Amino acid sequence: MPHRVPIEGTLDLAIMYRPTNRPGLLIEHLFDEELVLVAGGGERKQPMANYVFVNWGPEFQADHALAFPNLRLPGLSLDLGALGSSYLLNARSAGYLPIRSAQPHIDSGELALIKRSPRFVYPAYAVYPEDRDEEAYEPILASLKQIASAL
């Protein structure tokens, strides 16, 4: 029989887009994530011909549907966004990636930024308990803020 971990309803820290405000939790803005359309192999003319839907969550799904009302989702969808860049590079496909992770590949010419395509911006927040050990959390929050300011 598989071992089950009980759900206790506790939270140490989460990084989220558009978190829901709940009693007992603090929400702090860290940075804004911008998702841009890029294509591997320098494909700029018809990027949607080899389009891969990289799923960045329910907000992105809704915004994507509004931005592309006539686009049928492709047969390939990646639910783990982190795999997106390597797949787009290797398969010479197009899809949405965070500009911060795509930029080095754009600079090297491995990916092309599709300039006249919709961009999606999502604020990212740190969510943590209001009732916490300040001494333990202070270095963690300071490090997160430092990393976020570098983005």
In short:
This protein has helices at residues 58-67, 84-91, 99-108, 134-150; strands at residues 14-17, 25-40, 53-54, 77-78, 94-98, 111-113, 120-129. The chain is of the alpha+beta class and 151 residues long.
How would you describe the overall organization of this protein?
By secondary structure, the protein is an alpha+beta fold. It is 30% helix and 28% strand. It has helices at 58-67, 84-91, 99-108, 134-150, and strands spanning 14-17, 25-40, 53-54, 77-78, 94-98, 111-113, 120-129. The protein is elongated. The chain starts with 13 loop residues before the first strand and ends with a helix. Residues 1-7 have low confidence and may be disordered.
User: What is the CATH C-level name of the domain at 28-124?
Assistant: Alpha Beta
Q: At the fourth CATH level, what is the homologous superfamily of the domain at 28-124?
A: Periplasmic binding protein-like II
Shape: elongated
- SSE order, as H and E? EEEHEHEHEEH
What descriptors fit this protein?
151 residues; alpha+beta; D-Maltodextrin-Binding Protein, domain 2; 5-stranded antiparallel sheet; two-stranded parallel ribbon; 7 strands; elongated; disordered N terminus
Strands, helices and their partners?
Elements: E1 14-17, E2 25-40, E3 53-54, H1 58-67, E4 77-78, H2 84-91, E5 94-98, H3 99-108, E6 111-113, E7 120-129, H4 134-150
Parallel strand pairs: 3-4
Antiparallel strand pairs: 1-7, 2-5, 2-6, 2-7
